[in-house]
Amino acid sequence: MQPVPAKRDRDAAFFGFTRSICPSCKKVLDAHIVLRGGQVFLQKKCPSHGPFEVLISSDADYYLRSLTYTKPGTYPLAFETAVEHGCPSDCGLCEDHLQHTCSPIFEINDKCDLTCPVCIVRNQQGYSISMDHFRQGVDKLMAKEGELPTLILSGGEPTLHPQFFDFIDYCLRGPHAGHIKRVLISTHGKKLARDPRFAEKFKASGAYASLQFDTLKPGVYPKLRGVELIDQKMKAIEVIRELDIPTVLVPTISKGDNSDELGDLINFGVELPQCSSIVIQPMAHTGDGGDGFHATPTGHRLTMPEVHELIERGTGWLKKEHFHPVPCSHPSCYTATYLFRMNDGRYLPLPEFVDVRQYLDAMVNQTIIRTDDKLERMILDSITSLWSATKIGEDNQVILDSLKGFLSDTFNSRNPLTVAEIERRTETRAKAIFIHAFMDPWDLDVARLKKCCTHYVMPDGRLMPGCSYNNLYRHKDPRFFPRAEPVSPEPVRLDDGHRRLPVIS
Q1: Could you list the residue range(s) of the whole structural domain that residue 382 is in?
Q2: How many independent structural domains does the chain possess?
């Protein structure tokens, strides 16, 4: 890997100090964040491999403004590792971590029948978790969280595991029933498309399909996934429609390959009744994708502002100002907008008619919109604001009638609904669009790692921030690489594994 010379322009302004890693040897390095020419860059220098620079935001004004959305995190109920070597060398979570787990990812195998050039993992085709280890991992996760809105089962291709449905049952109908709200299955969709009995059993399980869905055009999948999949993907969508399987669409976006389709992909998801959310993932240059898809990410990286602009250009109706950092993770990791279905069937972005401060508060420290009194208050205040407007146009009247109807049906004191019923009713009226930017060795930033809320679940109880695991730990995980040398330095485990800190709300 060739180093990228760090530019020393006179116009560059130092903004901040952080830590990162060398893209070649993964050594932990000091790093600087600098502003230059209206953009933001991360600069670092490895003693062995020289200087590196990477673009982290194509819009400096957006980057600076996004930092004002940072909110205090909520600690997990327990940590696993002590602070001994400093971030990112103490993952587990360590006591310096600033956010609990919102989106835990449990990898139940590393077996897959695709070899995707953009894959961020390194499937070795040799590991399948046992039921005992799965139970142990879930139990320890729940001891740290108490309740989870979402648990993601991943791989490899998780549907290939022979005990796949047993794992879903344990999460949704076992000892944590009611405390794990949703189980998402990260899948390429082959079995849904090809096996009717499997698809029917999937529907009956109560799980959500988190479907890898990169393009609507032939000729793109061979480059991103190694083989043409367009017919199989559309067949999976057909099955999802027929069986009414709740679904999250997950496009991985590679600049110049399918980035021109962002608008079409969003419109497709919005029009699919079974789609509850769309999670856009700009390609991260790590795992197999980091090895071979591009020699370096220079010229291929999509920053958050670029994704917002591509969405606006592609849809025409969804504007970049509709997207806000999710006040849970670091503002450079997640942005989102929520769409609300009007009585006439149209979806309109919530930021168009709700107070942004209330809107952000309804998302704080979680990845799905909350369904408690804060949602009720946000909608009630929006109704009041629309009602008091000096002139109510046709659109405003539709919005007003839609919100009043939803509020009356969902938060009716005469016939109160359960929390689960409110969540289901909210999900039928709202869709979320997330942009989740994973980091790679080029742009890894410990400030982002410390606020990470997307964690891999280890069967031994540790929780690993997604980007530190993929960049520093995965290739030495003995489950997948039994002959690999141990991680150095080894994180120091807490004696009881249950160090507790007060919850910050």
Answers
A1: 314-327+334-436
A2: 1
